[in-house]
Amino acid sequence: MKLPKTTKRFCPYCKKKTDQKIKLVSTGVKRGTLTRGSIARAKTRGRGIGIGNKGKWGSKPPVSKFKRKTKQTRKQT
Q1: What is the DSSP code string of 21-44?
Q2: Where would I find the beta strands (DSSP E) of the chain?
Q3: In the predicted model, what is the mean pLDDT of residues 55-60?
Q4: Are 57 and 42 a contacting pair, CB within 8 Å?
Q5: CA of 14: how far to CAs of 9, 23, 38, in Å?
Q6: Which tens digit of pLDDT belongs to each residue from 6-57?
Q7: How far apart are CA 57 and CA 53, in angstroms?
Q8: Distance between CA atoms of 25 and 19, rounded to whole angstroms?
Q9: Which of 63, 47, 44, 65 is nearest to 55 (CA)?
Q10: What's residue 18's pLDDT?
């Protein structure tokens, strides 16, 4: 968005319209509050509350045997 560098705006101190500089300020990047891994969504579901390290919302189950790497060599009978 292009704006002029200065405009005539009302000054509450001298109560006149004076030339004032305009600066564009970004609204800032907001975190997605409704995304799947968002903090706000997790809080509403009761995750990650309490005291201590909840490393991404608490303990996870152990790695199942299907998620492990397959054996490179197997024992021949």
Answers
A1: E-------PPP-TTSTT-HHHHHH
A2: 6-11, 16-21
A3: 73
A4: yes
A5: 11, 21, 48
A6: 999 999 999 999 999 988 877 777 777 778 878 788 888 888 778 888 777 7
A7: 9
A8: 19
A9: 47
A10: 95
Q: Which amino acid is it at 68?
A: R
Mean pLDDT of 46-71: 73
User: What local confidence, expressed as pLDDT, does residue 66 receive?
Assistant: 67
Tokens encoding 67: 């998620």
Q: Are 4 and 10 in contact (CB under 8 A)?
A: no
Is the whole model's pTM more than 0.70, yes or no? Answer: no
Give me the residues paired with residue 69 across strands.
none
Residues 2, 13: contact at Cβ < 8 Å?
A: no
- Beta-carbon contacts of 10 under 8 Å, excluding residues fewer than 6 positions away, are 16, 17
| In contact, 54 and 41? CB cutoff 8 Å | no
- Of residues 17 and 3, more confidence is placed in 17
Q: Which H/E stretch holds residue 41?
A: helix 39-44
